[in-house]
Design goal:
With 460 residues, the protein is of the alpha+beta class. Among the domains are: 239 residues, no CATH class; 64 residues, no CATH class. The chain has 19 helices and 11 strands. The protein starts with a helix and ends with a strand.
Amino acid sequence: MTQSLADYVPRIEDLGKELGLRYHPVEFELVPPSFMMEVAVYGLPVRMPHWSFGVRWIYQMVQHKMGNSKIFEVVFPGNPNRAYLVNSNGIHENSLVVAHVLGHADFSHNNLLFVNSQREAGYHIVEQAAAHAHRIEQAIEEVGAKRVEEVLDAALALEQHIDTRSPINRPHFPTTVQKPRKPEADEPAFMGRFQQLPGQGGEAEKTSEAPQRAKIPPQPEADLLWFIAHYGPDMEDWERDIFLAVREESYYFQPVFNCQIMNEGWACYWHARILREADFLPDELYLDAMKTHSDVVRPYAAEKQVALAVNPYHLGFHIWTKLIQERGVEAARRIMEEEDDFGFVRNYLDPELARDLDLFVYQAGRDGEVRVKESNIDQLYEAILAPKYNFGAPRVFVDAIKSDGSLVLVHDHSTDGRGLEPNHARHVLGYIHRVWRRPVCINTVDMKGEAQTLQVGRAA
């Protein structure tokens, strides 16, 4: 870190704390652009190897070359927070980034989704992900790259299919169920219920029938990674380990995805405020930093092209600015602690602000033509939030394991409001079949809404 920036960092941190920011310590590190690109693509400084990250790297590089993407920083919440800054950026840009990171650190330290995620996945995800990568490298040495890649294909295809309402270390389903004894025809109903109460000694043994084998799962199960890892009939230990490693990392990324508009907007509000009140910054540095701020929170894709996707920095910054102007910082802080993007946008993006920001709903035709649609505020909410619903993935549940070991999945298409593209769905089923090693099917509807069952593997 250059001496000049190193001088500003503690002073920016002190000012942030004076203004009310509360967070775990932040470790800043200057890195070259190539390293920053890799971190942005992999999501973590060290992560399990897989070909899909190479595809993402190519896409990110193309966006960067076209001027549609510039990476200023990457920050990983934890205790401590890890923040990486690009060493080729100017001191004005990195001064802004330091203040921006403090906003992120405050958000992840206090927002309930982040707090729960870090409590479950741990406060040292960078080290944990490196340990996962090391174990996978060991598996490659033991069983070969091809077999490991096939398991990673399946696990990463399902990385969005977790259930963060359940803890990471959750117990297995009970294997048996106790059916209550049916009361005799002439037995008063009250006595039948009374004898089923605990602590009735020998009588309690007469209140239920012999244990019966429980249905697995007892109700539709949304956490596909957890279920397959624990109930896959022929999976080896190293395969289960990979599934659980991917699941643990997905727990970490889920609040990042679900709070992107809030989180980026909160960080933008605080970097603007900190820089505005940082009287120790030279005037020229401050002006250059605020020019960078304007670039970050603009609504455009590049130059003056109209963006067809919402810039979360732009939208979040303006919602928070209006909230704080109207209700004060403490009220905004309570909202920050309790909401995610779904509640934040629906509750605090009002029609007036939507008009001021020129937000609109559009329809893209098959010929590539884009038309702006007449829409109300609820349709605008849906357009912004629909891609974020359920981690951006269709809602799929494990419904049953058949007697021959076949795995039955069901797609909640009524909630999703869409069907599955058959070829893509079969591709994912093929990945699952490789590790489940028994037939796998899914009950769904096609893109026209017609019911269908897709299957991979033949039943015995």
